[in-house]
Amino acid sequence: DGYRYVGAAACNNNNNDLETWWWRVICPDGAFLRQGLELNTAHLATLQFGSLVNLKRKVINEMGLSRLQSSDDGWVSEILNPLSGQRGPICVPLPLSVPILVKVTYSRGAVIRSNLELSSPIVRHAPVNTVLSVIKKCYSEHPRDKCIVRYELSTGGWISGNLNAPSFDSIIQVVGEDPAFDPNN
Fold it and tell me: Hey, which residues does 67 pair with through a beta bridge?
């Protein structure tokens, strides 16, 4: 598809680490890496089309734009600023190359919701030590100051990796790749 790198999804195959999350720059003009959260902060570099960037956090800034913090503490926008008259994504997450298994480690278990956002209805509860298959990783849009990493389950529904507040304790732990995964299905 015109990308400079082939097979880059293998970057997300380190399934022992839920924190490492690679995204690809898909905007033909690249992505501006800025020093701060707001667009008026210093321009550090321009990440070229096809570049991979390791992102660690998402925040909605004062203008209402989704901003992503890179592992080197610079910030890029997830989508083009609508005030510029343009629309479309700048960066997209690389998909998990293989579904991963996670075990619920939180003593009260994990709440499974119907959709990505925490405001969606609860569909079921997974008790402690339940093993679940994760097929997708996304950021929620809320809370705006610390968007939550959410995981889509192969059986339907979404869970969080950590409590939302006050302690942000971990809820799940990676067990490994899902041995039931069949790329032909």
Answer: 59, 77
Torsion of CA 37, 39, 43, 47, to 10 degrees: 80
* pLDDT more than 90, % of the chain: 65
Q: pLDDT, tens digit, for every residue of 98-157?
A: 899 999 999 999 999 999 999 999 999 999 999 999 999 999 998 888 888 999 999 999
27/25 Cα distance (integer angstroms): 6
- How many of the other CB atoms lie within 10 Å of CB of 183? 6
Q: Which residue has the tokens 């032909």?
A: 184
* Average per-residue pLDDT for the chain: 88
What amino acid occupies position 103?
A: K
What the block records as the tokens of 20 is: 């490492």
Quote the tokens at residue 47. 């990440």
Per-residue CA distances from 31 to 4, 64, 177 (Å) = 15, 18, 32
